[in-house]
Amino acid sequence: MEAFENYFKEADLNKDGKISMKGVSFITKFGLPTDVIMQIWRYANPDRKAFLGRLEFFNFLRLVTVAQSGHILTPEIVKSSLYGSAAAKIPAPQMKSVGSTSASRVTPSTAMPQGANGSTSACEQFFQVNIKHICAKLQVALADAAKYRFELNEEICKREKAEMELVSLIQKVEESENALLRELDLSESRQDWLQDENKKLQEEWDNAVKQVEESQIALLKELDLSKTRLDLLQEENKKLQEERDNAVDEVEEVKESQIVLLKELDLSKSRLDLLQEENKKLQEERDNAVKEVEELRVGAGPGSCEAFSKFSMLELQQATENFNNSHKIGEGGFGCVYKGFLRNTMVAIKMLHPESLLGKPEFEQEVAILSTTRHPNLVTLIGTCSKQSALVYEYLPNGSLEDRLVCKGGTPPLMWQMRTRIIGEVCRALLFLHSNKPNPIVHGALNPSNILLDANLVSKLSDFGISRLLIEYTTNTLGHHTENPKGTFAYMDPEFQRSGQITVKSDVYSFGIIVLQLLTGKPPINIIADVENAVNDNSLHSIMDKSAGEWPFVQAQQLTNLGLRCTQMRRRKRPNLESEWKLVESLMMAASSFVLPSFKSQLDDEGIPSYFMCPIFQEVMKDPHLAADGYTYEAEAINGWLDGGHETSPMTNLPLEHLELTPNRALRSAIQEWLQQHP
Fold first, then answer.
1. Which residue range forms the structural domain that includes residue 53?
2. pLDDT digits (tens, 9 = 90+) for 222-263
3. Which of 342, 422, 491, 530 is positioned for an S-S bond with 447, CB 3.0–4.6 A?
């Protein structure tokens, strides 16, 4: 058993407990030929395993021992050697194998018994044994042939199958070659197309490179220009920085100067306050002086003209900026009228030309009349400059009635309520003049250009140059005769034109023309005939001025009849205004209910003229002052309005051009005179 293990270890070349054909080749050292060993391998490994285990190797060694002892390996002997059932039947004679032939081949010479004289039975026995041995070998050969035939058939089948696979593979190879050839053709065409595309791409690339190079060149040029501009900008920035530094220094200097100026301003304000207080005191003293002069003038009687202010030519020049055309507000045959600021008062200055229709007597006549008469609807004379024949009146900002009838300067038209009020105011002024004592006064030149309107559209008569104090001309007739009648032709009394005799009825005629003109808005020429025709045709409404609004029919009819009565060609047929005043007053009162409060001109319940009332306090003014909007207010009321931060007019709500206030001394004098007459 130990020898067996040694043989197994020697044959186990891989040392994994398994014996391969290569591992049993060491048995050749026992002197057995290779084909015998192959036969023994097949007997010991009937299952054709690639490796022998221990059991199979043990059987292999047993068969090797049997073959080495000279026995022929027949199936019976192999079976007996492996399984132990026929060991005793092994023939006695020992047989030695021939080295280069098969293990079953035994030469006759060696198999035969020795000695020539052997018996026949022994020879027969020898031949029988050889025959059996040959039969056994034949059987083995046949079995091997059958086996080899089977294996050959298998190999043939495998070869045919391999040939078929080879043919199929060759077909596939040919198909692959054809496909490759086709692909090769396509590849060649694609290669040509790719070459063309590559050529185009190369050209595009070259163009792109060229454009990039050109762009780079242009960018480099732009960069150079940008660098140049940057240098210029840096230089300009440097200059601006220097200018800024200088400006900052100047600002600092200005701030320092401002501080100094503020200090000086504070000093100036304090000085101004002192001066204003002194001025106020002086103003009060002047007002008192003016009041005293007014009282002296009133007490002195009609001939006292010296109570009015006397102005020098230098003062008039300063007030009008040397009679600048920008201050001119009117011009006529008598001369020019200028707007000026004289002694803290807005005034109108009438300068008479040397060759004016009004001579020295007329100038003195107007001064005499206006200096002795005072009425709310008569323009107030402030003073004169006798050397230059100049008259200084109160300034009336709304111009003349003629300007408003034609809407000069884009002014809105007068509504019928205002026109009715103006008719009443003119009638009242004429009544005042005609009832003057001891001698009535006739205006003699009444027309819309001589009717002025103040800031509240209150009418005032002006231009008394040709006015006359009437004396008894004939029995029971007061009048004045002149050889050279003067005035506006369309408004002149026809009898005055023919005879040269002027009476109060001459003013009545002019008043009638103005009434018809306010009703119709027509020019004075032929206006009497037009109105008479309309009345006769019952078409009065057709000639009424539409810009004045809707006239009430009764009111329009009564005013029309009044105008026609006043414009009778015969003087004796014209009415006295005193007899017509009740009608006119009633019409004024009726129209006043339609007028806005700021335009009411009627008297209140106590008979106080509305223009004596302060628009803010709604009471009689004691110290009237004129504001930049042209309205007159009580000083305390308008100062309170302005001190409250207002810079607009209390009446119109429009911005004021300035915040300066001017004492309205003429109105103050009129208020004081009215209060004396109505205690």
1. 2-107
2. 888 888 888 888 888 888 888 888 888 888 888 888 888 888
3. 491
Whether residue 17 is found in the same domain as residue 77: yes
- Closest among 558, 573, 552 to 493, alpha carbons compared: 573
88, 107, 126: which is the final residue of a domain? 107
Q: What is the CATH number of the domain that holds 15?
A: 1.10.238.10
Are residues 597 and 640 both part of a single domain? no
Cα gap 493→498, rounded to integer Å? 9
How many CA atoms, within 13 angstroms, populate the side-chain half-sphere of residue 229? 6
Q: Are 520 and 527 in contact (CB under 8 A)?
A: yes
What single-letter DSSP state applies at residue 445? -
In sequence order, which residues have a C-beta less than 8 Å from that of residue 648 and are 6 or more positions away? 654, 655, 656
Rounded-to-integer distance, Cα 625 and Cα 617, Å: 13
Tell me whether residue 191 is in a domain. no
Boundary (domain end) residue, out of 80, 107, 134: 107
Instruction: Say how far residue 64 (Cα) sits from the centre of its chain.
Output: 120
Residue 461: which H helix or E strand, with range? strand 459-461
Contact 604/610 with Cβ under 8 angstroms? yes
Q: What is the pLDDT of residue 646?
A: 84
Judge if 500 and 643 occupy the same domain.
no
Which uninterrupted H or E stretch holds 349? strand 345-352
Q: Is residue 60 domain-shared with residue 49, that is, in the same domain?
A: yes
Closest of 409, 413, 388, 403 to residue 331, by C-alpha: 403
Summarised one tens digit per residue, pLDDT across range 185-204 is 888 888 888 888 888 988 98
Whether residue 371 is found in the same domain as residue 424: no
| CA atoms of 372 and 381, how far apart (whole Å) | 10
For 476-493, what is each residue's pLDDT tens digit? 455 454 545 566 778 888
CB distance 442 to 503 below 8 Å: yes
Q: Which residues of 405-420 are buried (b: 16+ CB within 10 A; e: fewer)?
A: beeeeeeebbbbbbbb
Cα separation, 65 vs 218, in Å, equals 107
Least confident of 75-89, 255-269, 430-444, 515-529: 75-89
CATH of residue 440's domain is 1.10.510.10
Q: Is residue 626 part of a domain?
A: yes
Three-state DSSP class for residue 308: coil
| pLDDT attached to residue 288 | 65
Tokens at residue 4, please?
């067996």
β-bridge mates for residue 472, sequence order = 478
Q: Burial of 245 by CB count in 10 Å (0-12 exposed, 13-18 middle, 19+ buried)?
A: exposed
Same domain, 326 and 454: no
Predicted local distance difference test score (pLDDT) of residue 108:
36
**85 and 48 belong to one structural domain:** yes
Q: Are 450 and 483 in contact (CB under 8 A)?
A: no
Q: What is the pLDDT of residue 439?
A: 79
The neighbouring-strand residues paired with 15 are none
Residue (of 48, 49, 44) closest to 61 by Cα position = 44
Helices 416-434 and 553-566 cross at an angle (nearest 10°) of: 30
Please give the Cα distance from 242 to 236 (Å, whole number). Answer: 10
| Residues 554 and 429 occupy one common structural domain | yes
Contact between 621 and 634 (Cβ < 8 Å)? yes
Q: What is the DSSP letter of 617?
A: T
Q: Is the pLDDT of residue 607 over 50?
A: yes
Q: Sign of dihedral through CA atoms 466, 472, 478, 482?
A: negative
**Mean pLDDT taken over the chain:** 77
* All residues at 6 or more sequence positions from 216 whose CB lies less than 8 Å from its CB, including other chains: none
Give the model's confidence band at 520: pLDDT under 50 very low, under 70 low, under 90 confident, else very high: very high
Q: Does the predicted TM-score (pTM) go above 0.70?
A: no
Cα 463 from chain centre:
60
Q: Decide if 510 is inside a domain.
A: yes
Residue 106 — pLDDT band, cuts 50, 70, 90?
very low
Question: pLDDT grade, residue 12 (50/70/90)?
Answer: low
